[in-house]
Design brief:
- The structure is a single chain.
- The chain has 6 helices and 11 strands.
- By secondary structure, the chain is an alpha/beta fold.
- The strands form 2 sheets. Strands 1, 2, 3, 4, 8, 9, 10 and 11 form an 8-stranded mixed sheet that branches. It has a 3-stranded antiparallel sheet with strand order 5-7-6.
- The longest helix is centred in the middle third of the chain and has 12 residues, at 102-113.
- The radius of gyration is 19 Å and the shape is globular.
- The chain starts with 8 loop residues before the first helix and ends in a 19-residue tail after the last strand.
Length: 236
C-alpha cells in the first residue's frame, strides 16, 4: 500500500501546483474547507488559478485569502454574496466569474469525476445561465447542455480517514467535498484524524481511498463562524 500521508500541506502539494491550473475546492462558506491546503497554496505564490467552488469563502478567510493575494484569475461558483473583495474584483473586471446554479455545479463535478463530459438539465433554461449553451428538446421540454468539470487538483477537508485514504465527512462538511474529490486528477485531503486500515466501518465511508492520492492531518482547527448572531441580553 502506497504511503499517502504527508507531514504538512506544503509537502503534500509539492510538485502539484503550477500557474494557470484548475482547482476544485470543497467546502461551503467556512464549513468543511481545506484550510491548511488553502494556506499552502497562498504561500506558494502560484497564480492565474481557475477555482471551482460553491463560493470563495469570506473576506480574508477560506478562498478569500487567495482572492486577496490576487492569485485567482477565474471563479466557477454558485454563491458569492458574502465576499466584498470578490464583488469588487468582479465589478472592476479583475476577476472572471462563471456563475453556475448550485445543484448544477455539484453535478458538473460529479459528472467530471465519473468520466461524463456533459449532461442536459432544465435548470437555467430561459435565463442568462443558458446563454451560449447548446439546447435540446426532450419530451417537449427544453434542456441546456452543461459540461462536466475536470480539474488538475482537488483539495478537500474530511473528518476521519484510514491510512489507505478511505474517508468520512462529518455532517454538513460533506457538502461539496465528495464530488470535488472525484473531479480532480489529483486529490489532496486534509483530515482531523488518520486511523489504521480496518478501523473504519466500510458502510460509513463516504469517499473510497482510490480517489485520495495524498493527505495530511490538519488538526487542531479553530471554529470559524461566518455570522455570529446572539440574542440581546434581557435585563431581569
Amino acid at each position: 500500500m502506497a504511503n499517502k500521508r504527508y507531514t504538512d500541506a506544503a509537502t503534500a502539494l509539492e510538485g502539484v501546483l503550477f500557474d494557470g491550473m484548475t482547482i476544485c475546492a470543497g467546502g461551503f462558506g467556512l464549513c468543511g474547507i481545506p484550510e491548511r491546503l488553502i494556506d499552502a497554496i497562498q504561500a506558494s505564490g502560484v497564480k492565474d488559478l481557475t477555482i471551482a467552488s460553491n463560493n470563495a469563502g469570506i473576506d480574508g478567510q477560506g478562498l478569500g485569502k487567495l482572492l486577496r493575494s490576487r492569485q485567482v484569475k477565474k471563479m466557477i461558483s454558485s454563491y458569492v454574496g458574502e465576499n466584498k473583495e470578490f464583488e469588487r474584483q468582479y465589478l472592476s473586471g479583475e476577476l472572471e466569474v462563471e456563475f453556475c446554479p448550485q445543484g448544477t455545479l455539484a453535478e458538473r463535478c460529479r459528472a467530471g469525476g465519473a468520466g461524463i463530459p456533459g449532461f442536459y438539465t432544465k435548470t437555467g433554461v430561459g435565463t442568462q445561465v443558458a446563454e451560449g449553451k447548446e439546447t435540446k428538446v426532450f419530451d417537449g421540454q427544453e434542456y441546456i447542455l452543461e459540461r462536466g468539470i475536470r480539474a488538475d487538483l482537488a483539495i478537500i477537508k474530511g473528518w476521519k480517514a484510514d491510512e489507505s485514504g478511505n474517508l468520512i465527512f462529518r455532517k454538513t462538511a460533506r457538502n461539496f467535498n465528495q464530488p470535488m474529490a472525484t473531479a480532480g486528477k489529483i486529490c489532496v485531503a486534509e483530515v482531523e484524524e488518520i486511523v489504521p486500515v480496518g478501523s473504519l466501518d466500510p458502510d460509513t465511508i463516504h469517499l473510497p481511498g482510490i480517489y485520495v492520492k495524498r493527505m495530511i492531518v490538519g488538526a487542531p482547527y479553530d471554529k470559524q463562524i461566518e455570522f455570529r448572531t446572539v440574542r440581546e441580553r434581557v435585563s431581569a
